Amino acid sequence: MKKKVLSMFLASAMALSIVACGSSNGGTTTETAPAATETAPAATETQADAPAAEAQGSSELVDGKFAETRQITVEVYDRGNDGGSDPENNMYTEYIKKGMLEEHNVEVTFKKVGRWTETEDINNLLASQEAPDICVTYSYPTVLTYANMGGVIDLQDLVEQYKADTPNLWNWLGETNMLWDKDPKTGALWAIEGRRAEQQRIVTFVRQDWLDKLNLKAPTTTQEFEDMLVAFRDNADTLLGKDAAQMVPFASGYDIGWECNNIITSFMDPKITDKEYYINGFDDRMVTEPQTKEAVRLLNKWYNDGLMWKDFALYGSGDTTKDDMIKAGYVGAFQHNWDYVFRNGEDSINSNLRRNVGEDAKFVAVDCFQNSDGKYAKWLYSSAGDRKIFFPVTNDEPLASLLYCDFISKPETIAYLQMGDEGVTHEVLDSGAIQIIAAEGDAIQNSGKNIDYTITCNGTNFGDQKLAELSINYGYADQDPELVAAANKIALTDGLQPLNVNVGEITAEAGVGDTLSSKRDQIYDKSVVASVADFDSVWDSAMADYLSSGGQAIMDERAAKWTEYFGDADMLP
Length: 573
Fold this sequence. Notes:
Blueprint lengths: L1 H20 L39 E2 L2 E2 L3 E9 L12 H14 L1 E9 L3 H10 L7 E3 L2 H9 L7 H6 L5 H12 L13 E5 L5 E6 H6 L8 H13 L1 H5 L7 E4 L4 H4 L1 H7 L6 H6 L12 H13 L16 H8 L2 E7 L11 H8 L6 E4 L11 E2 L4 E7 L7 H10 L3 H9 L6 E3 L5 E3 L20 E2 L6 H7 L9 H12 L2 E2 L16 H17 L5 H32 L7
Parallel strand pairs: 3-4, 6-15, 8-9, 11-16
Antiparallel strand pairs: 1-2, 5-12, 6-12, 7-9, 7-10, 13-14
Helix pairs in contact: 1-3, 2-16, 6-16, 11-13, 13-20, 14-15, 20-21
């Protein structure tokens, strides 16, 4: 029977792969889901609420080890970093392999998947029966698509059956994350959610040396930010000299919904109801929120006034053109992940600026987009709900796979994967804080905080919360910890916690994530570059296309599910 189900799934996966090849991922070069679903425990009793039965250890294990060696494969992102380490073979993969073999008698092989082509790559691997035993994605609708084709193992019984064998996994994630995606009606559990140790998302960066040269103060309002951009544009000769023609006052990539997110959020109604936020919450770029159109109207004005990068819509996911302009010193301001300018050590944005422009050249974080309540509102990540870990039906070693998840959730494993070896990847300061230093060769971490290996943990942790809090400002090689501290503080100021609503599967979301992400980006990009006179017609036409392509069906089903679980209430209980 399993072979029959698998055969049907493989045929479906091949068809899905063909569709995926013709559509944009719609994601961004950031660690966030392209179109995340806000989910959490429902307002009805689930297994997580009931008293848990006392778990028994597996009879397959003796002192935590299999009698005969087992083999598993694990997905790891290939980011294509210039000068990075081999994602399948480096000092961190060797640490994991050695630990899993010694502790559980499990051989681990890593299988790389393109970070920015993950959906297409996993589709192809599933179709060829070569998918890793442990797969990872930021998109739960993608997992549901595979599950509805019969291609994913239901973990609901397995996680309970092997609970006693995976204490580190349960201790780190807790029932909230372990059962985050558990269907409130069927009990099906298609994925385990990783945990975010850091909740900061997006901040605005500006060139401090340009402010100093023009005798300007850091902007604190939207109007002051616009005035600053005008000053950058009008003083290009002073700021860039012979390169004045390269001036870009404000740079956004094609992913406007992410890279202008704090601007968009500032237009949102501070008194938005939980119901309205949830109904519009399929897309985490907030494209269907009622006030988003007016936020984009402002961007359209800036674009037509020569304040934004003219070619932003031409370069897609993974392209480095914008970052290269920023590193070369041609850009005055941009929005991105709170630590974006500090990442990658000597190849970071601020390190490149010092080399290419001068010692005083640097980006600093500013807070300037207030909502109608005068708050610098910005959405945070939920501490629960990160990458989704799932096992394809081709996985014949579910216990070994859960033991892997347990191993990489151990405090000492997280600590090593994040900090590496003293003197090689970090130093210990007098205060006890961990200072990350530039690494070479196979010690290079291809992702911030090495999150490609700590798949249950996203953000500074070191296996010790107090040590993490002490060290977060020193977590970036070759960077000023005071600038990191300032960005961290701004990223959390007036932060908004995302909603957690679990009403079971939204069937309309399955299989449309890539298509709607692409159409969402088109709404934003086409509207920003439109003439001022054509803005309304361009926005309305693109939005109608988005809604008719599945967006409206998702919103309608979410509204119906909300009513089913919460009745006429506008706010969660």
